[in-house]
Structure formats: C-alpha cells, structure tokens
Amino acid sequence: MSRQESVLITGTTSGVGRALLEHYVRSGARVISVNRRRVQELEAEYPTVRFECVDVRATEAVHELVSGLAAAEELPDVFILNAGINRVDNDEVFQLATYRSVVETNLYGVLNFVEPLTQLKRGKIPRHLVAVSSMAHYVGNPYALGYTTSKQALTECFDAWSKMYVGTDLVFQRVMLGPVRTAIYTMASDFPSWMVRLKDAFSGSPEATARAISRFARTQKPRLFHPGRAVALYLGMWLCRWLIPDFFRGRKTRTGNSR
Ligand SMILES: NC(=O)c1ccc[n+]([C@@H]2O[C@H](COP(=O)([O-])OP(=O)(O)OC[C@H]3O[C@@H](n4cnc5c(N)ncnc54)[C@H](OP(=O)(O)O)[C@@H]3O)[C@@H](O)[C@H]2O)c1
Q1: Could you tell which of 8, 10, 12, 16 is best to mutate to test the pocket of ligand 1, judged by most ligand atoms within 8 Å of the CB?
Q2: Residue 254: inside a domain, yes or no?
Q3: Is 238 contained in some domain?
C-alpha cells in the first residue's frame, strides 16, 4: 500500500493557500492548515483537515507547533510556506511599521518554520520545504518595498539552502509566482491601466497554481516559475527598468503633500 501524502500549508483562508487546501484534500492527502484566525465555515467544510491557529510571525508558537508534530511523529512530508501580505509602504512617505509587518510575515513567517526543521534529527524520508516567493523579486516595486525586499531575501535564502542541503533529507524549493488572481493581486488596481491589462493577460488562476505547486513539490527541483507565460512579462519589465531611466521615477501622491 502506498504511503498517504501529508502536507502543511500556511495561509489557507483565501487565494493560493485555499486552492492548495482544496487540491490536497481532494487528492486524499493528510492536511494541516495553519492560519492566524479561525474560519468556522472553512473548518466545517473540511472536517478531515487539522486546523492550527498560529500567526506565522510568532516564532515561539511556530517552534511549538513543529516540535509538537515531531514529538507525535506527525511531521508532514511537505511544508508549503505560502502565507504572505502585500502593503503600500513607500508612497507619500516611507512607513516603517507597514514595512516591518510585511517583512515579518513574508520573510520571518517562513524562516520561523525553517529553523526548527533544520534542528531536527535527520529523517529517513525527504522533507520538502516549499517557499512561495514572487517574480517581483526581479523587477521590484518601489511603492511596496517591504514586499519586494522580503521576497528577494526569501528567494536568496532558499537558493542557498537548496544547494547546502543537497543529499540530506531536507529539500528546499521556491515557487516564483507571477500574477495569480487573488486578493493580493487585486491590490494592483493602483497601477496604471495598461499595466493592469498586461497583468491580466499573463495571470493564472489559484486552482491551476495549486496544481502546479503540488506537482512541483513531488520533485527535487529547486525552483518553479508559474505561470510560465508571466516570465515574458517580468523579463520585459526588467528590461524596461534598466533601459528606461525614468521607468520607476517619481512618487504617486494622493494628498499633494509630498516633497
Ligand atoms: N497573487 C499573486 O499575484 C501573487 C504573486 C506572487 C506571489 N504571491 C504570493 O503567494 C502567496 C499567497 O498569496 P495569495 O495571492 O493567495 O494572497 P491572499 O489571498 O491574500 O492570501 C494570503 C494568505 O496568507 C494569510 N496570512 C497573512 N498573514 C498571515 C500571518 N501572519 N499568519 C498566518 N497567515 C497569514 C492570509 O490570512 P488572512 O485571511 O488571515 O489575512 C491568507 O490566508 C503569498 O506569499 C504571496 O506573496 C502571490
């Protein structure tokens, strides 16, 4: 009899995480869902899922969760570290508190899981740690510095670990997402209309993204670019950024108070 697949997913109340939860439940996997708040309807809809109410920014709570699972020999084979936020933090003025909250979620919210997992005794089966990063890594967004820099740091860490841990039981993998039609994605309505139209044309659905991530997590590959067609969009933006000096110049001002 084949082993039942087991997965822990962070941030399953909406978007990609929710689609991942649905996908893994449908495929018969054992699922642990980690959310910062309880959602009664979600828990009622998926009675087989183990719901843990933990804010990924809370280092001690995450460590306790991981050590509890290890002690009960219930550590899943796959950790999909998906929870993330995006905020405008550098528009009229630079807002440190907003920047900090984004970095604490997107970067430390993942690293909090990595530390205890690297401290465990080597296991017999491979354990996959999948970070959900962003193609924004390559282009940046001057208005959302916390988002861009946290995803850049996350990508760099997972790149280093995917090489350092080769041949061990830990498989570090990163997903470089392009636009996916979720709550985070709709924030982009702040962008110029031509950019919104371009993003729409290159975007993917949360369901297709969940399928691609689950297939990827069964491999040993270090990185996945999804949706593939978005690579062309980001490559184009990357070129514009370097070739057009004014591409990212100037601030969006709403109150007219900026310098
Ligand atoms: N959508 C895109 O275009 C896109 C592109 C590139 C990368 N990504 C990445 O994909 C991942 C999923 O994003 P999404 O598009 O699915 O956005 P989403 O619909 O806004 O989902 C984000 C999820 O993260 C959870 N979360 C936020 N802060 C948390 C915390 N401190 N502790 C635990 N959970 C927390 C949210 O829970 P609440 O409901 O409690 O807020 C929600 O379940 C993110 O890492 C994002 O950066 C998305």
Answers
A1: 16
A2: no
A3: yes
| 61/63 Cα distance (integer angstroms) | 5
In a domain, 249, yes or no: no
Task: Calculate Rg over the CA atoms of the chain.
Answer: 19
**Ligand 1 center to residue 258 CA distance, Å?**
30
- Count structural domains, the chain: 1
pLDDT on residue 256? 58
Q: How far is the CA of 115 from the centre of ligand 1 (A)?
A: 21
pLDDT digit string, tens, across residues 5-22: 999 999 999 999 999 999
pLDDT in tens, 79-116: 999 999 999 888 878 999 999 999 999 999 999 999 99
Range of the domain at 141: 6-243
Q: CA 90, CA 145: separation in Å to the nearest integer?
A: 7
Residue for token digits 């941030």?
Answer: 11
Q: Which atom of ligand 1 is nearest to the CA of 106?
A: 45
| Positive/negative CA dihedral, 155, 157, 160, 163 | negative
* Beta pairing, strands 127-134 & 30-35: unpaired
Q: Residue 19 maps to which CATH number?
A: 3.40.50.720
Ligand 1 centroid, distance to 170 Cα (angstroms): 24
Atom of ligand 1 nearest to the CA of 85: 27
pLDDT confidence band for 145 (50 / 70 / 90): very high
Span from the CA of 22 to the centroid of ligand 1 (angstroms): 16
Considering the domain boundaries, does residue 68 fall inside one? yes
